[in-house]
Amino acid sequence: MKFDTAPSRGMKDLLPAEVELRDRATATILATYRRYGFRRIETPALENLRLLQGSGGGENEKLIYKVLKRGAKLDAATAREDDLADLGLRFDLTVPLARYYAHHRAELPDPFKAIQIGPVWRAERPQKGRFRQFTQCDIDILGVVSEIAEVELILATAEALIELGLERPRIRLNDRRILSAMATFCGVEPSRHGDFFITLDKLDKIGREGVERELRDAGHDAGAISKLFAMVLSADGESSSSLQRLAQVVPATSDAVESLRMILRAVGQEAGGRFTVGFDASLVRGMGYYTGPIFEAAYGDYGGSIAGGGRYDRMVGRLLGQDVPACGFSIGFERVVSILEGKSDQVRSERDRVAFLFEPADPLAEVAAEAGRLRGREGTVSLTLKRKNLARQLDDLAGEGFGSYAVFRPGQSPEVKTLVRRTESAGGADA
């Protein structure tokens, strides 16, 4: 019987060139974040199902991959779901971080500045650019009440994106307290703010008509919906004046407005034309655990955000019994990599590998010793059996990303020569 060797639906295999690009991107991001004082941690792929389901993760709580208890008997007719599964695959890195901090708090510095890079899983319908397994790249600051946490997170993330080659990213800011005050002012019941914002977060995906239709179908008052949209649209414009007008119309937003103005001033002074930052009243962020400022990053004409985050001061408190101020920013690693793949200079930016060719009859001890000496000078050296058609082999090696080659000759120091693919040197003609 023929076995289907394709990866599971919503997952993907990564070829060597893709992995190398991802490794370079990861190294760049890590180097940038470490300059800001962040330190890397790791958390398990599996977390307690009760933790994941009660995290305020919005729609993602419906997309958890649940793991059956070991040895559990499957009886779909009589067994309750709680009897079958007590663990789930993490759907983001923020919820595991809260659990990690609550468990290790006595061993961690205060404040704690963490980096996490790793896979997460969501059981959603696969589509272009959306997978069931994907990598997230987070930085978080726990234990800092001051807006300096938001400022540092935004500056570090913007710098990381710029270092990756994404020129002039755009940072948008809002505040969940502003959204809540606006919704209450327009007549939305406070108890329904959560599901209201989850739907409003779909604005860039289904448009205003789609959002209004979903909100009406959910039983929200049509007048409140229209009033809120009018207020959001009227807040469009220069950030400082928009925030000032908003505080005048909805006085309950004044504290959050002042907080955002402080962040905008501090970040704006450091932007230096390398990136832009501004207030956006339509920004929501779908997670229910946000409690204050929220932010997203966009790049060029790429549809959707490439990074997002915000403040979640009450998440750790659910586990410790006392609130801990916390704030984070997550780079959409898969989206960023897809942009980098479209940049030919990024895909082939490091042609520093040397192919060291040898014959099957050559003395292996001498070959290995010479390769070691060559590696000490050149860095990356890959031992490669020499084929009969050397010209074709060199062409293939150039196509694989090797930048140069050398041939083993007993008793002689190998000469390193530059590799140029014949199809490239011939203007694209097939050799």
SSE topology sketch:
Layout (H helix, E strand, L loop, with lengths): L15 H20 L3 E2 L5 E3 H5 L12 E3 L12 H4 E5 L4 H11 L7 E10 L11 E10 L5 H16 L6 E6 H11 L6 H8 L2 H15 L4 H13 L4 H11 L4 H18 L4 E4 L13 E6 L8 E5 L5 H4 L5 E6 L1 H9 L2 H4 L5 E6 L5 H15 L1 E6 L4 H10 L4 E4 L9 E2 L3 H4 L6
Parallel strand pairs: 1-5, 7-8, 12-13, 12-14
Antiparallel strand pairs: 2-4, 3-4, 5-6, 6-11, 7-9, 9-10, 10-11, 14-15
Jot down its keywords.
15 strands, four-stranded mixed beta sheet, 18% strand, 431 residues, eight-stranded mixed beta sheet, 2 domains, BirA Bifunctional Protein, domain 2, Rossmann fold, elongated, alpha/beta
Strand order of the largest sheet: 1-5-6-11-10-9-7-8
Low-confidence stretches: 424-431
- State the helical fraction: 40-55%
**What top-tier CATH class of the largest domain fits best?**
Alpha Beta
- Shape field: elongated
How many domains? The number is: 2
CATH architecture classification of the largest domain: 2-Layer Sandwich
Number of helices: 17
* Strand residues, percent: 15-25%
CATH-assigned homologous superfamily of the largest domain: Bira Bifunctional Protein, Domain 2
